[in-house]
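User: Teach me something about this protein's shape.
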Amino acid sequence: MDRTNVLGICQRHIPSAEVGVIAPLKYLQELGKLNFTFKESAEVDKDDIAKSDVIICIRCTEKIEYEIIKESKRLNKFVIYFLDDDLLNVPKTANSSGYFENENVRNTLIDILKESDLLWTTNSNIADRYKTYIKKSIIINAPALLYNQYETNHFQKNSEGSLKVGFAGGIDHEYFINDLLREPVKKLLEEFGTEYVKFEFMGARPRFIDEFKLNYIPYQSNPNEYRNVIKQRNWDIGLAPLQDTEFHSCKYFNKFLEYGALGVAGVYSNVMPFTFVISNKENGILVDNTSESWYQGIKSLIVDENKRKMIMNKANKKIENEFTLEKIADEISSGIMELLQFKAPYCPISKVKYKKFGSSKLIKIVQLIRTHKLATPKYVLKRILLYRKTGY
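Assistant: First, the predicted structure itself:
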């Protein structure tokens, strides 16, 4: 039997696309279960649409993506929308809020959702909130791509007589962690000294980094670079603060997978989605979002080496049992049978009416103008300033 041809599309090759869709489906392709191709949306052409049986739209919000999906549906392809964030309710504090508040973007996102046959998500809250647009959904965890049994079994902690406490996360976390973690960090540095406890922040850059002379690692937007950098940090304790809002409850517990895979004992906000996967004081420390709770939670791991090791081992074991690439790929293949079995009717290129409008760069410029219209120059300037500040 011929393999199902699966096409994944996204505006860019972003980390969530790599973790949630690209890596697992590439693995299934290596096993000979399907044929998988990933393309940035602006690169998709008639041939890609013609030969595909299944198309996975990863966080798609642009008119060009709607046109691809609409034509795919006309040709009787099976369309899946992958969503790992509540994109219709992005908070104003997020750097991307202006984009997702745009009426054209919101309407296009909804139009694509309504055209899709299946919602593939990592969070049951998203499935519930988006059932207005797609009634059929499936919840599948994303894999811990940082997990490697050989590496974690030989993970070497600091031999300098010090403890490294780290945070890794997107730039949108900056204001929240600045308010929440300044006092805990200050008290712990005063209590244990800067030679023994060393704090590092990767991605988000709270104001107290300069105040306390802490180490900062810029955000790494490339998934491979991100993995390489975080592997080299050798943290003992990982921090994962998260706001308690409906939007944040729809996120995925990436930090647990990253910290646990690298042998890092994590301290997490006692909110969804972390409460989906963490048993308090077993495979992580859950704390309330107050400065005092965060101070006590971090301190408990600083002073108790046995607790740190126990939490690290149990987190790592849970990942080994439930979140390896092999296990998640198997869940995908059994949960979304269309990826292995669906065959669209034969479609010669001549039947595809989708027209690629010029080069990829030109398409992206047209997308910007379509979305932001007269505000396009202002939006572009904002993105340039943000890139200079964060590298993202």
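Now, about its shape. Residues 149-322 form a domain with the Rossmann fold fold (CATH 3.40.50.2000). Residues 186 and 211 are 10 Å apart (CA to CA). If you'd like, I can walk through any region in more detail.
User: That's plenty for now, thanks!
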